[in-house]
Amino acid sequence: MKKLILVVGIALTMPLSANAQTAAAKALVNRYLEMGRVESNGKNLDAAEAAYRRASELDPANPMSHYLLANILARTGRHEEAIVEYKISLSSGPRSSVSKYCRQALSAYKHTAFNETANSREFVPPPPPTSLETAFDAIDRQAQCKKKRTDHFATNLSKTAVKGGDWKARDLKLSAESEVANMYASTRVILPRNSRRTTGATNHLEAEAARIRAEADERARLEQALANERAADHAAWSKERQNDIDDVALNLKDQLTDQPSKFGFDLAPTGTGLYVRNYKTSKPKKQLPDPRFSVLRLIEPGVQETDSGLK
What we know:
Among the domains are: 20-124, Tetratricopeptide repeat domain (Serine Threonine Protein Phosphatase 5, Tetratricopeptide repeat); 147-247. 66% of the residues lie in helices and 6% in strands. It has eight helices and six strands, in the order H-H-H-H-H-H-E-E-H-H-E-E-E-E. A hairpin with a 4-residue loop joins strand 1 and strand 2. Helix 3 packs antiparallel against helix 4. The termini are far apart.
């Protein structure tokens, strides 16, 4: 009976498995998240913050706990801390269910100024951007996107060129080794050992093999040099193309800034981008002359007109 009790006691004190520990920790995190929701709905923000912070400490990689904690920090006016928690949540789960809301919050903070008051920090809506600023932002955004696509395309071409050169160099060396092996296999020296003629034939074969390998190495080096040259050409084209994109963007901004033009047609900020031009007329329309009413009177030959009438 004592042995049975001892075995049961040992079984009860055995540590939980890894899966059981993970499930228990997850359940505890969910409990703290639920406590935080209850306290937040009851307007007890301090208790909600403590619950969400505890959940974040138990599971630092949980994007939901950091997101809910950031919301509480934002509601209490601690916006710097809220920004940090939003970023942690987004980095922990870029495709989580709350990633969209984290991006929206961070975007709002990016375009929001703060107003320092005595006891709190509150949002001050920024002034609405002008049409010119909106056009500049659109041009810069489209230019950066175009430059990234150009760089990605050129990088892939460069990598393909270098890889192709390496493959050709490898094939040349393998072909040389195969040629050497066939040469040794097809040449049989039927002479007694330690013969001078045997040594000379062997030396000739080794010299021929060295020549074949040297030619293959030289051709392989040339192939790799050509591949590297093509890769450099792709990189130079990408750089030149990106400079052209910057020039186009700068020219568009200059046209939008330097108005009106002497030709009477200017770029309109609204609707203008890197790929679209929206022009407007800057010269005022000519005013039509004032109409003057007149009466045409037909008088027969020989009839004179006087103040009193015709006679």
